[in-house]
Each structure stands twice: as structure tokens, then as C-alpha cells.
Amino acid sequence: MKSATRKFSIATSWDPGLLQGLAALGVEHAVRFEEVFGSFRQGLVGSARQAYRLPAVSIEDIAGHIRDAEDVGIGYVHLLNAPEISGRIADRHWRARLAKHLEELHGIGVRSLTIANEDLLRFVLESFRAQFRIKLSLIAGVDTVDRAREVEDLGVDVITLSPFSVNRDFERLGAIRASVACELELYANIPCLHECPLWGRHYRYLGLTTLIGRPSEPEPDPYLQYCSRVFLEDPVQLVKSPFIRPEDVEQYFAIGIDRLKLSDRAEPTAFLLRTAAAYASGRFSGNLFELVFRSGSKFRAALGPGSLMAHEPVPIIIDNDKLTSLDFLERIRSTRGCALESFYLEAAARAVTLESAAAGRWTSALRQASARSRGIPASTLGRIATP
């Protein structure tokens, strides 16, 4: 029987049916969906998704969802993980508004917060330590022993490590695990580039869209334009992406990772339950692009709503059964340097399929959208390898 200590945190769609489904999956597979996480569409601090892609929920909606979650033994984590608060923490009037907001959240039953900005983190730990369990967001970029010890000393309860650099580095994961007593969490179904050069700027961009008073109208995401083009033009990046497959979760729990995080808050209940079932069972047969890359929903966000490509499938297949036949994670763990690059080339050749005509249409649409976008300064793009 699988260990009941395997724990997951998953995005919420605010649907009671999601909570009931998670509880049933937990019983079926002897795992624990310990918590769901969510946020307002826009807030005083903000979170890390484009505002228009998030469900619009009120504080009363959150309060009701917390009660529904508690009824099936699931906790709730509220996201205050926008990385940029523009120095407002130094403004005593803004701090007073923040304190009132935190008291309101506590009053409706919020007991856990995810925070990315260190100034905000210090304020909450100093003023509200008794009220909240504190999770440090992956956006804080913790990926070394020294940094993990530093934030543990501040008083955080959970560190979500940076997936861009540590998800497949078991030597580093083991060293961090040995160095801290707090809980460690990893983001499993991350659809991002390995060691993406723009991830920090992207999260700042996303966080700003979710601040109260900012325009929340739909717009293309320029950072997703960049990474979507990379994936289409260099398919090896699809298998180098730092996702954790359902088949590989046991290897992470075995080295002491406490919890795996599953996304995405912009996805519907059906997707979230399918994702939960795959990771709870430790099996997924089929196109991994559907599970990890949300069937291309972020490619569509790169173009924005209303694009002529919105209803055209993204022509990528990642055959997960072929990755399993290659002993995917075991080969990564035992291989270094040029040999690892060669393995990724082999994995992409064996498992990844792109339909060339459709891929060309998508690439063209992304290039056109990128040419119109002002979200990434030309000077920034000039410093990285653009496709």
C-alpha cells in the first residue's frame, strides 16, 4: 500500500465538486490532498497570474469555500505572492490597510498564507505570526542551502523551492533537506523553461496585473510569447522543462520532500481533478503536454483572448509512456554534462511529436503578437538567446 504521508497542495477552482473529488482521490490512493490554494482576482498585495485569467471571487466566496474544504478535511492557503509591492510597506497608511486586510482574512478562517516578497514576509512574521502558517513562495527563488537556512531562521513554516533550478538536482535537494527542519515543497506540473532567464521579470509582471486599481482587461502575455516560441522551435526544451512526472513522485518523497504543489488556478475543475488523479496514482499514460502544459492554455494566453488561434489545438505531443520506457528521471539523476544533453536530445526524438504545418501557424502568430508587445524591453531580450 502506498504511504499515506504523500501530501499534495493543489490550486482551487472554487468548486465544491473539486473538494469532494480530491477527498475521494485521497481515500482511493492513500494520499492526502492537504490543501487548496487561491486568491482574489485583484487585491492589496496581489498574486502571480494574469488577473483576467482568474475567477472573480468575493471574501464571502472564500469564506464559504474554506468551510466546504474543512468539511472534507482539506485546508486553504491564501496567496499574497506578488513579488513586487513597490516599497509600499514603508507607508504607514498602507501598512494599516494591510493589517486590516490580514485581520479580515483571519476572521473568515484563513490560517495559511503564501508570500513571495521579503519585506511583506517580515511584516507578517513580526505582526501576525500567531495567526498564520507561513509558506514562502517559489517566487522567492530559494535554491541553496544558505538561503534555505536564512529564510527558515526568519520563521517560515514551509519553503517552496525554486523549480527552475532544483527540481531535477537531487544532490542539491538532499543538501537543502539535510540543512533545514521546516517543510519543503516542490512545484510538480510546472510548464516553464529550465532555468528560464525571464522568470523573475515574468512574475513581477503577473503580480502587477493583480493589484487593486490596475487595469485588469485581457491582454497577451509577452513572457509567454517568448517561452511558447522556444518550445515550438526547440522541442528539446519540452523535455528539459523541470516538471515532475506522476511516475516519479515517489523519488521526491523518498528524499524527504514534504509536499508537491499542483497547478493551475486558471484551469477548470475537470483539469484539476484529472491532474490530481494522475499524481495520486503515480501513473499517466498519454500526452504529457495535456497534463503539464495544460493542453497549451498558456500558449493561448500568450496571444490573448480573441485570437484567431484560440480554438486551434497546439500541435505538440509528449508521449509519457515513451519517457517511462527511457527510465526518464533515473537517467537524468545518473547522467551529467554533455551526456545529459545527449539524453535530452534522445528523449525529445523518441517522445516529442510536432505537426509541422500547425506548429508553423502557431509560431507565426506568436511572432506577430510579440512584435506588437511592449511588455519585454528590447534590451532585455537582447541579452538572452531568442529563438
Give an overview of the whole structure.
The chain has about 375 residues and is of the alpha/beta class. It folds into two domains: about 1-190 and about 240-285, Aldolase class I (TIM Barrel), CATH 3.20.20.70; about 220-240 and about 285-385, no CATH class. The protein is about 50% helix and about 10% strand. The chain has helices at about 15-30, 60-70, 90-105, 120-125, 145-155, 165, 170-180, 200-210, 220-235, 235-240, 250-255, 270-280, 290, 295-305, 320-325, 330-335, 335-350, 355-370, 380; strands spanning about 5-10, 30-40, 75-80, 110-115, 135, 160, 185, 260, 315-320, 350-355. The strands form two sheets. It has an eight-stranded parallel β-barrel, surrounded by five helices. A two-stranded antiparallel ribbon has the order 9-10. The chain is globular, with a radius of gyration of 20 Å.
Structural class: alpha/beta
The largest sheet has its strands arranged as: 1-2-3-4-5-6-7-8
Tell me the CATH topology of the largest domain.
TIM Barrel
CATH homolog superfamily of the largest domain:
Aldolase class I
Overall geometric form: globular
Fraction of residues in helix: 40-55%
For this structure, the quaternary state is single chain
How are the SSEs ordered, and which strands pair?
Layout lengths: L6 E5 L4 H14 L2 E7 L20 H13 L3 E6 L11 H16 L4 E4 L2 H10 L5 E4 L8 H10 L3 E3 L2 H4 L3 H10 L3 E5 L11 H11 L12 H12 L2 H5 L8 H6 L4 E4 L6 H13 L6 H5 L4 H7 L12 E3 L1 H6 L2 H7 L2 H15 E3 L1 H17 L5 H4 L6
Parallel strand pairs: 1-2, 1-8, 2-3, 3-4, 4-5, 5-6, 6-7, 7-8
Antiparallel strand pairs: 9-10
